[in-house]
Structure formats: C-alpha cells, structure tokens
Design goal:
By secondary structure, this protein is of the alpha/beta class. It is 33% helix and 24% strand. Helix 13 links the parallel strand 17 and strand 18. The chain starts with 5 loop residues before the first strand and ends in an 8-residue tail after the last helix. The chain binds ligand PMT.
C-alpha cells in the first residue's frame, strides 16, 4: 500500500527541478505524506514556497535553519520517512553520495537514512556518460540505491541524448510499485542470458559479436526488482551484476548451453537475450597461431541452438526469445517464434540507429504466437525490460505489471 507512506522528496539543482512540483502533487493525490529537502542550488530553479504549498509541509534547505519540527531534524527526518526520492539527481549530488560527503541538509539526510533511496538522474548527456558519473552510479546501484531513468531525448542545453529526467508519472509509478506491486513476480524463478559468446580459436583469439550485455542485464535487473529470484547466465561483459542477481559467468555457447539446460527444469521464466554464436571453430589451437603470409581457412562446426532446445523441453515455463535481424524483421522473427516454440519473441532490427548491439536504447516489437504484436518506439533498454517484464507477469497470470 502506497497511501499513508511518508516520502522525502530531495531536490538538487538542475533545470528539471521544475518538474518536481508535479511529482509532489501526484504523491499527494495518492495520499502520500510528502516532505521536501532542497539544496541551495535547487532553490534557484524552483522556490521553497511552491514546494511548501504543494506538500503542505515545511521545506528544508539549510542545516542551520531554525528547527521546524524536530531538534536534530536531519536525523529525525532520515529515520521518519519510508522512502527518499531525489529528483532531479545531479552529477554533483550523486558524487557526494558515492563518497559519503554530507555538507548540507539533503546530503546529510541521504547519509543518515536507512530508508530505500530512489534517484532520478538529470544532466547533460556528456556529463551523464562521463566515466566519473558512471562509476558513481555503479557504486550507488551496488549499494542498493534504485535508479529511475534517465530518459533519452531533447535536453535543456539544446542537445539530444540520455540524461533527461524521467517524467513525474514514471517516478511516482516506480515508488508506487515499490510499495504495492514490486513483488509481482515474488516466488518465481527467472533465468536470463546476456552478452555475446566467445568461441576461442587459440589462447588469445576468439570469434565473437558486438553484444554488450546491456539488454539482458536490464531484464535481469527488472525481474529481480519485481521479486523473481534471478540467475543471469552471462557471456563476458564489463557490466556490474545487478544487485541481488546471481551471475553465472560463461564464455562459449557450449558453456552457456550447459548452464542454461542445468537450471531450466527449476525455472518459471527464461529470457534468451544473449547473442549466441551459431558456429565455433572445429579445432582450438594450443599455441597462438603464427602468421605465415598464406591464406587460412577456419573450419566451423555448428553450436547447439539453446533456445530451440528449451522450446522442445518446455513444460510450464514462460520462454522468451529475441530475434536480431538485419532484413525482413517481422517475417524472420515470426518464423523464429514458431520454430523455437517461445511464448513471446522480442524482435529488433539491429541495423537501425539506436537499436540492437551495443547501444543504450533499443527499438523492439513483441510478437505473440496468437498473432498479437506490440511495436514500441525507441526507448532505453531498461524501459524495454520493464515492458517485457510486465508482459511476463501477464503470461504468468500476475496482473500487476511493473512498467
Ligand atoms: O547486448 P546488447 O548490446 O544490449 O544487444 C542486445 C541484443 C541485440 C544482443 C539483443 O537485443 C538481441 O537481439 N539478442 C539476440 C541476439 C541473437 O542471437 O539473435 P538470433 O536471431 O541470432 O537468435 C534468436 C534467438 O535464439 C535468441 O534468443 C538467441 O539467444 C537464441 N539462440 C541463438 C543461437 C543459438 N545457438 N542459441 C540460441 O539460444
């Protein structure tokens, strides 16, 4: 139940601060008790008076203001609330949280609270992709902090990219799900495959593909957040394991085959987002292959089709396949869906900019064996994952989706 909960809305200084008025107002409409803490910079973008009027509570800015309710307010507030959401979360506040800095009211509450923390990052896309920001985000995620967005699109600085704050409705919905629907897959077991398999030729070379693992990792994250006990069978990637997910590292298609088949009978859901090599070199050279100036031919032998095998062994499992196509997207995807006996097939045309291998976004269609099809616009892989997990919940007869 979300109604009756106490939420602290933290606002740091970015242009998206104006959107937070809507977050507060939506929370109030859901009968949530809202408190607001702002950084000094945030007050340049939206006034404390606006937030006080919308939240119907005093607004905290300065550590040394006259107490409004409690003696040691930042500690009392940190212990009082059921959740904290920081929106917009600037690169600066995330860096402070990552290193444990507490030099104003908001950062002090963030350090003192034991309540779950949600961050809605918002910043210029170059700042968002800076390694320092990404490292901070990884560290915060590993501490269990939940990240909402950011979305991709037009930015106040006049550019396009990832770094736009998620819409107020989405932020409030994530909080609502956390309190009322986050366990829609509770008691279920899920397995996701991610990344591109590597098929060794010699001790230093392999045949591989451009999969970054992002799509599969996002799906594993959302499944776990929805209450499913989640295993991630992962080909090599640089991505951190989502909190709570059990990662089983593999390198080759054969290793992935073994890991997936061994777990399959216990699973309720399997999502095959990995890009699995269809062939592997027939022989593995023991020593590094030497250059001799002549042409070489590599003999390849077929790998097992893991998804097709699962489709044959399937009993009650919900089985989700992907199709990475470069031509005739829907016809090829339809054929794969039927041949591999899946409950839902996610088709992506990997030639489109912003879709498929390596990108942070994807453009997908969901195809169902009963002929239904849902086409989605370009969205972050996390948003694709949310839509997919919502369909998985429906297929399992769990009606509360997680979008
Ligand atoms: O990892 P990212 O950079 O985020 O990129 C995401 C993605 C493009 C890899 C992902 O969205 C995607 O499309 N994954 C499937 C890639 C793929 O191998 O597609 P396919 O059409 O070749 O295979 C169809 C399905 O069969 C897939 O579910 C695949 O996992 C499975 N398969 C394929 C071959 C094989 N030997 N065994 C399999 O299980």
């Amino acid at each position: 139940m979300f109604a009756g909960k106490k939420v602290l809305v933290g606002i740091s200084g970015g242009i998206a601060a104006y959107k937070v008025a809507e977050v507060v107002s939506r929370l109030r409409k859901l009968n949530v008790e809202v408190h607001v803490a702002m950084t000094k910079s945030a007050t340049e973008f939206i006034t404390p008076l606006t937030l006080r009027s919308l939240s119907a509570n005093p607004v905290y800015v300065d550590l040394f203001d006259e107490p409004k309710l409690w003696n040691v307010e930042h500690i009392a507030l940190a212990e009082y609330v059921d959740a904290v959401v920081v929106a917009p979360a600037t690169a600066n506040i995330m860096a402070k949280m990552s290193t444990g800095l507490a030099d104003d009211f908001l950062s002090t509450v963030l350090l003192a609270t034991r309540a779950p923390i949600f961050l809605a990052p918002a910043m210029n896309h170059a700042m968002y992709h800076h390694p320092a920001t990404q490292e901070n985000l990884t560290r915060l995620r590993e501490r269990g902090i939940k990240i909402i967005g950011p979305a991709v699109g037009f930015q106040a600085c006049g550019t396009e990219g990832e770094g736009r704050m998620s819409e107020a409705a989405e932020i409030v919905e994530r909080l609502d799900q956390f309190f009322s629907g986050s366990d829609c897959l509770k008691g279920k077991r899920a397995l996701v495959t991610a990344g591109g398999t590597q098929e060794p030729l010699d001790p230093v070379r392999f045949l591989g593909n451009r999969s970054s693992g992002r799509m599969g990792y996002a799906i594993a994250q959302v499944l776990q957040e929805s209450g499913a006990e989640t295993i991630l069978v992962s080909a090599p990637t640089d991505l951190p394991t989502p909190p709570g997910v059990t990662r089983v590292p593999v390198q080759t298609a054969l290793e992935m085959y073994e890991a997936v088949l061994a777990n399959f009978p216990k699973m309720d859901v399997v999502v095959k987002a990995a890009a699995v090599a269809d062939y592997r070199p027939a022989a593995l050279a023991e020593q590094k292959l030497k250059k001799d100036g002549t042409n070489r031919t590599i003999e390849l032998v077929p790998n097992p089709d893991i998804l097709a095998e699962l489709g044959q062994q399937k009993t009650s499992q919900v089985l989700i396949g992907f199709a990475a196509e470069t031509e005739n997207l829907l016809a090829n995807a339809q054929e794969k869906m039927l041949r591999k006996n899946v409950n839902l097939l996610v088709a992506n045309d990997v030639t489109k900019p912003g879709a498929g291998f390596g990108s942070i976004t994807n453009i997908v269609s969901f195809l169902f064996p009963d002929g239904r099809r849902i086409d989605f616009p370009q969205m972050s892989k996390l948003e694709v994952a949310r839509n997919l997990v919502s369909e998985i919940a429906n297929l399992l007869g769990r009606n509360k989706g997680v979008k």
